[in-house]
């Protein structure tokens, strides 16, 4: 069989069953070029797709399975330790904030965006100022981090 793009004669296994006019390598190259040419579209699509209800539910089920398995919990603990070593400034801010909450020097407040009073996190805009926090619920905290990531992408 001859590929329409590279014009090489190749064995039938070099072609996808659904596309006999282009070899697998040429199809893959076209897909890579298309994604590179339309990267902004695909990034927005991927971000929106991650928050589809069935995908959120699947992640929650996956997390529950990891919690139930001692071996996977050990892997997660190791991953957390590795993260702490890679991000000492963030870890330091988290520890100082946690100690301040425990000691009563910082008092947890309702979410500054939506007013929720449960599942509140201390969000740091600047990790060099560990006691300068914004109180956000988990949902708003995730939204804020997506905003920060979008700002970084726009600046790049």
Keywords:
6 helices; elongated; two-stranded antiparallel sheet; mainly alpha; about 160 residues; single chain
Distance between the amino and carboxyl termini: 45 Å
Main β-sheet description:
2 strands, antiparallel
**Roughly what fraction of the amino acids lie in strands?**
5-15%
Residue share in helix: 55-70%
Class from helix and strand fractions:
mainly alpha
Poorly predicted parts: none
Give me the number of helical elements.
6
- Strand order of the main beta sheet, please? 1-2
Using the CA coordinates, give the radius of gyration.
Answer: 24 Å
- Assembly type of the shown chains? single chain
Mean pLDDT: 95
From the spread of the alpha carbons, the general shape counts as: elongated
Task: Give the number of DSSP strands.
Answer: 4
H-E order: EEHHHHHEEH
Task: Walk me through the structure.
The chain has helices spanning 24-37, 39-50, 53-68, 70-86, 88-103, 138-155, and strands at 15-16, 19-23, 120-124, 133-137. The longest helix is centred in the C-terminal third of the chain and has 18 residues, at 138-155. By secondary structure, the protein is mainly α. It starts with 14 loop residues before the first strand and ends with a helix. A hairpin with an 8-residue loop joins strand 3 (120-124) and strand 4.
